[in-house]
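Thread title: Can someone regenerate the structure for this chain?

I was given the following input by a collaborator and told the matching structure tokens would be attached. They weren't. Posting the sequence so someone can regenerate them.
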Amino acid sequence: MSEIKKTYSEENGLKRVHIVIENELLGLTNHKSLNEIITEEISSGVKNFSFDFSNLTSVSSSGIGILISNLKNINTSGCSLRIENANEKIVNIFRISKLEKIFNINS
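Best answer:
Regenerated them for you:
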């Protein structure tokens, strides 16, 4: 079961949602809930998304697909996404797959 927690703030007059994924692995178990959260938050006027990866130990190929799909939806809606607190293993996955060029990663 996917555990996702949200907190809200405002940055430069724009709503930000900070999403903490409580699982150790980002993968298929997160797909539906993460997609629903992104869609709901965009509809409610959130412009900035922050994904906190501090609890994650790894990201599966399904997890990468989920992130890419959601990044497309976020960008299409004129919003931004930042990944925070990713461990070295996750940062290396993004680096090897050249995804650090399309994701804003603050580790």
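The chain has three helices and seven strands.
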